[in-house]
């Protein structure tokens, strides 16, 4: 059998891509990806900001980041870890989008790539704690718009026919590209604007009136030595460290807020802001500490918290005697498991709504969060808290304990040198060394300083405000020329000295003595 072959020659269309073609292809990919994100974000705002493709992907990455990486990120970027993640994501997306554009040159492989990524993003969005089936819509809508953009930029039309860029003039391409750029920027900006209009939590916070409470015991001057560079006893809201898994701040107005107490209780109870107003708030000064704080690190702060004793709120529900955990949940799905004993033993465990005389800043949990002295934040300090389940440690796990961090995490004794600064050069003679130490619930009863390998010397302790706050200390050093290492260690209220043994933050808090190298001339 003979197959007939076409006799007429096919005109050669597949000439090698010109260099300008590569640039155009990459730019087309980048613009298409920008349209995916812009359109996706706009559609998400109408459904739920948490469904935005960029946030959904980022949040999923955060949830699946191994603790070593999370720790390294916090170590390197501190409270800027989110900006670091976003920047990394943006760079990866930019490169991926350019590659998709290049792959699109012969066949619609780039479009296929966009569709696959869109599917992945939709799945990620559907996994968010507050997700409904609608959460898939922004990614799908974004990808449809993105693929259309890519096809039009590559072929001049929406179809799947072979690229005709050779036929497209530079002028036409630039016009189409400008259109795509405007679409991406326009949808993203509209999404942002709508997002703030629809949920103006900042305005709600500005209108929020804190109830009156008997003020916390005043901070005596003796608790705050006047040394330049020494950490101030109270940390301002702007300077307070921030650690959480929320890429996008939860937006919860005080009117929307509810707190449900349920689980192993006699009756489920629910509070809203108005029902709290019938109760008597208290104000307490408490030092909060993050488990991710390294030796010498800055992830600790002290504020005046205004709130309602948690034990009273729980008493209204009637806690069953065989329960031993309070599982708190935030509106964005974060959970913390707190030993009930810590909530009920008489310490100042609070449902806090005020911080340093203001409503909680949104980043610190507006409108309500937990503050429980003596426990690291990840097992106690749930921000944007909306749900308290009374349960048992052998039945429930929480966000970080599911990821291997310690179940019960009392704060370990720590001390830090603030002054002189790291690698500072000071003049020989009398030099003030100063810093802070904390051992919440036990208090700090001693701090010692060592120069090189000489005997340890007792530091002068500032007044102790309470066992739940950090304590400032100073020490006068008769500095001699040369390079010296200063070391600090604290003793807590039980008489136990801070251990020299180095431990990483994982799984339940860092230990070891802080040291600082100083040059004396
Ligand atoms: N909703 C929510 N609450 C949270 C977290 C979080 O990721 N999400 N992180 C906890 C951790 S690890 C710490 S150390 C404290 C930090 O509180 P801050 O950001 O107000 O300093 O919040 C806790 N509360
Ligand atoms: Mo933390």
Can you tag this structure with a few keywords?
membrane; binds molybdenum atom; 521 residues; alpha+beta; Sulfite Oxidase, Chain A, domain 2; binds the ligand Nc1nc2c(c(=O)[nH]1)N[C@H]1C(S)=C(S)[C@@H](COP(=O)(O)O)O[C@H]1N2; five-stranded mixed beta sheet; OxRdtase_Mopterin-bd_dom; 19 strands; Molybdopterin-dependent oxidoreductase; Ig_E-set
Question: Can you describe this structure?
Answer:
The protein has three domains: 18-198, no CATH class; 221-403, Sulfite Oxidase, Chain A, domain 2; 414-520, Immunoglobulin-like. It is globular, with a radius of gyration of 29 Å. The protein has helices spanning 19-47, 53-63, 67-77, 81-103, 109-126, 137-155, 170-198, 201-207, 273-276, 310-317, 340-344; strands at residues 258-263, 269-272, 282-289, 300-309, 325-330, 335-339, 350-355, 358-359, 369-371, 385-391, 414-419, 425-426, 429-438, 444-451, 457-458, 460-461, 471-479, 482-492, 514-520. The termini are far apart. The chain has 521 residues and is α+β, with helices and mostly antiparallel strands. The longest helix is centred in the first third of the chain and has 29 residues, at 19-47. Strands 2-1-10-5-6 form a five-stranded mixed sheet. Strands 3, 4, 7, 8 and 9 form a five-stranded antiparallel sheet that branches. The relative contact order is 0.10. Molybdenum atom (MO) binds next to loops.
